[in-house]
Amino acid sequence: MIRFPESVRLVEVGPRDGLQNEPVMVPASVKVELIERLADAGLPAVEATSFVSPRWVPQMADAAEVMARVRRRAGVSYPVLVPNLKGLDAAIAAGVEEIAVFGAASEAFSRRNINCGIDESLDRFAPVCERALAQGLRVRGYVSVVLGCPFEGDVAPESVAHVSLRLHEMGCYEVSLGDTIGVGTPGRTQRMIEAVSRAVPVERLAGHFHDTYGQALANILAALDCGVLTFDCSVAGLGGCPYAPGATGNVATEDVLFMLDGLGIRTGVDMDSLVATGQFICEAIGRTNNSRAGRALALKRERHAA
Ligand code: HMG
Ligand code: MG
After folding, report:
1. What is the pTM of this model?
2. Under 8 Å between Cβ of 101 and 141
3. Domain extents for the chain?
């Protein structure tokens, strides 16, 4: 029998992880409205954008504009991705209060994503974390490809534990474990989390699952059973992985919320507002809604209104 907690913290990553691979530029005004609607729906953290090289990720080139325009709700955090000191300086200039550094558990993915190997990436993150913490910012850490790499295949849990520990030691208040290409299954998820939690306290870990093989909700249950209490998710299941053809986005926020609501686990997120937000962004960017719960609830609402 799974041990369920009373509440779970959801970190919405749609505006960043969801939109970063969209081929057509999404206007800043749409991004800003998306972020504001998500915060209004009750998400306690909305990852807003990333201060990365615009050559590598053109869709996030408007990071400063988005942060300048977004109305920030008290009590909500708006983390942004930062890969290096240049990104940190730009984020601080934009008035950001929380950043996230992002590493990987495989050498090949690290090189493709941030153009350096794992050790070098950790050496780069150390001064970023140090300066950010000294300026009073909160720092989150990511480890990508924790359950499989599109270039190297299987990833050893020990490698995930090694990178997680280094991020934890640099002062990351939480390390988010990313199944970037969505190949994990519940048993492997638990073995990976058990290995990582021998290095980093489990209450400092978050789960970041993608739904490529339809395993994300099952993996979240498996992670809950290990004591993980924070999960990343993306409204309407926005997103994908440029290095994994066919990989779907992060698990949809609506799907996670439907499951947690059904289990009586509190999140503070309002389903109606969330579903409307999913419809808004899909219409705004002409994309299919990847959330099954989101689609079903929207349909139900339309029938009810007719
Ligand atoms: P590089 O080419 O090695 O960097 O890229 P560089 O230092 O040689 O600089 C090259 C150019 O980029 C220079 O410009 C720099 O000024 C500029 P130029 O002189 O040629 O005109 N530059 C920057 N510009 C703006 N902001 C910056 C910045 N840094 C350099 N911060 C670098 C290295 C890390 C910069 C690059 O590889 C990069 O930006 N990568 C980001 C990749 C990315 O954002 N990936 C997606 C996020 S990770 C993810 O999605 C997974 C996750 O969601 C978990 C999961 O899903 O499982 C977290
Ligand atoms: Mg992701």
Report:
1. 0.97
2. yes
3. 9-305
pLDDT digits (tens, 9 = 90+) for 34-71: 999 999 999 999 999 999 999 999 999 999 999 999 99
Counting ligands in written order, which one lies closest to the CA of residue 124?
1
| Sheet hosting strand 45-46, strand order edge to edge | 45-46, 9-12, 230-233, 205-209, 174-179, 138-144, 98-104, 80-81, 49-50
**Ligand 1, CB within 6 Å, residue ranges:** 17, 20, 50-53, 55-57, 81, 83-84, 86-87, 90, 102, 113-115, 142, 144, 178, 180, 208
Please give the distance, rounded to the nearest whole angstrom, from the Cα atom of residue 64 to the centre of ligand 1: 15
**Among 16, 19, 53, which is best to mutate for testing ligand 1, by the most ligand atoms less than 8 A from CB?**
53
172 catalytic, yes or no? Answer: no
Ligand 1 atom with the smallest distance to the CA of 55 is 12
- pLDDT, one tens digit per residue, over 64-103 is 999 999 999 999 999 999 999 999 999 999 999 999 999 9
Name the residue with the closest Cα to ligand 1, atom 3: 115
Residues 9-305, CATH architecture = Alpha-Beta Barrel (3.20)
Sign of CA dihedral 41, 26, 20, 185: positive
